[in-house]
Amino acid sequence: MTQHAITRAVSASLGECELTHQNRLPIDLDLARQQHAEYEACLERLGCVLIQLPEKPELPDAVFVEDAAVVLDEVALITRPGAVSRRTETESIAAALQPYRDILRIESPGTVDGGDVLLVGKDIYVGLSSRSNEQAVSQMQQLLAPYNYRVHGIEVHGCLHLKSAVTAVSENTLLVNPDWIDSSTFARYEIIKVHPDEAYGANGLRIGETVIYPVTFPRTAERLVQRGIRIELVDLSELAKAEGAVTCCSLVFTKHK
Ligand code: CIR
To answer: 38-45 long-range contacts, Cβ below 8 Å, gap at least 24?
Structure first.
């Protein structure tokens, strides 16, 4: 079962990215591009066929392709990003997904970033964050009910996106920062908590049985390994200055249409 991964080259304007919870720090663009290339190489090593979209120099955050769509087995949902500066990122993503999926769209006044959407089996958890709202949740409920998805809106505090606070690291195991979400929502799953000194460590990208995980959080990485999770480490420190993490830089899906 071939997996495809859409990625997009780092924009020359990355330094002008949106920032919500972090202070602006100088970003080394060459290093960001090198780290991004190593991330892409990691996806390829894990068996993904890359669909590499060209840079959008005028859109600072366009490298974070995850926010523009939610790709399910049956359909692709094109988002309406919460940050106005990011709204036009979606068209090129819709065009890239068109050959693989029928396309659905979130409409105004709904806003949602893909970073707020966590898929676990047939359950879709949507973070109610500064980027994603209840209107988008109800649109998703209506659009995805025919495919038997249950869509739940959940509160997120203190971080940018739901997936800053929780990601799936196996079929039934979630990696969680309990300070940013109410973990009792996820009581039916196995839980691994981030190390208390590694608040940003809850974002891992599961590809098959492996999780792509940042080198930046060694204590949480150790917890993952102790619980039997296979990890591949990557360094995305420059993109982290733009509030990006490992899930944000790709849209991974199984090929079909
Ligand atoms: C933004 O604020 O939109 C970007 N600077 C970072 C987006 C990161 N995306 C993600 O976590 N899915």
So the answer is: 38/234, 38/235, 39/7, 39/212, 39/234, 39/236, 39/246, 39/249, 39/250, 40/5, 40/7, 42/212, 42/232, 42/234, 43/5, 43/7, 43/207, 43/212, 43/250, 43/252, 45/232
